[in-house]
Amino acid sequence: MPTEKFRESFSFRVFRSFSISIVIVSAIFALFFVYYQKGRVKEDLIRKGRVLSELLAYSSKTAVFAENRTSLRDAARAVLKQRNVLAVQVLTADGKVLFNEKKRPFGRNGGGLAATPAGRGLSGLSESDDTIEIVSPVTLALSAAPPELLYFENTPSVRKEKVIGFVRVVMDKKALGGETAAILVRSALIAAIFIVLGAVIIFLAIRRVTRPLTRLTEAVRSLGKGQSAGIVPVETHDEVGRLAEAFNMMSENLKEREEEKRSLEEKLRLARTMEAIGTLARGVAHDFNNILSTVQGSIYMLEKKLYEDSPLRDYTERIDVSLTKAKNLIQSLLTFSRTQTISPQPTEINRLIRKMKPLLAGILGEGIRLDLSLSEKELVLKADPVQIEQVVMNLCSNARDAMPDGGSLTIESAPVLIDGGEADRRSAGSRRYVCVMISDS
Could you give the dihedral angle defined by the CA atoms of residues 26, 31, 32 and 35, in that order, rounded to the nearest 10 degrees? Predict the structure, then answer.
């Protein structure tokens, strides 16, 4: 299964395509190189044969003219010792053989070279299945000018050449096969090295290209499973790099949406909880209000039956004050449950805060000192006193939780004036306001 998965991968297919292309190109190059070098080797063999034959023809002029076989033998055998030279033959112009030796038998009958009559196509190049014959004439220069012309300057002399013999050099074509085989081996070795290096380079290049794609694939798979994908590094600025940037942007957007989703779910859960608490508070408030109404009616009937100077009136008045506080508490519960409307009324903020001081001291506890720094002027504002009390109590409760080791809490009040521009942005048009500051240590 892993092998099949690897064969179906993009990197393996690209590597296979490039490898096949490199093999084909290398094979074509090797064949062309062998064909070209084979022609070059043949040309070099013919060139070498011509040079040897012409050199022997030039050096053996005197020996051929004098038909001196002893002097001719040394020069001819020196040529015969050369590599790839199979046979050497020297003839006079009339076909008389002066020198004829070979290294090994060759030709169809294995005999070698035979004497050729004079003037029958000796000069030039001839080729058989296994040999190449190069024939060069042995010439002797003759001067056609009379002797008296030597005394005059700038007189061109007419030079003539007379063929006095021929030199035949036979080259072995079998050497071409060995050279071709060596060229083929070298070409195959070069092609193999080229293929291996090309495969390694292509593998590294494909790995460099597919590595970001692999990481991106793993990140997409993790994202699909609902796991954290992380940030995919952007290594290049090409299409793969832009794809990684787009994925990172998509991942960040999905994270933000997930966070927004969790936040909305939390808010929805809290809203449902608050709705349930509000429903419970409404039921408790209504039931408790009915009980208080019964108690308040009983107190009213009791006060009617008591004398003005009865000592029990002090108790009934205390009960009535407690009933008023209980009704205010019920109004707070109804306001919290969104069933009771807010009732703004003129409220002197300093008197309200002083009245709340015993209650706030009980909320803060013994470890927190409560200081009141209220304005000497009366600060009357239009607000719901129950709401003001609830705000002050909540702030004091938060301050208590923020000072577990004790501290001090200060409540200040002061009149403030706000310019018209900022006042216009508020509901009221007046410039006079009351500032209540609650600070803790």
Answer: 160
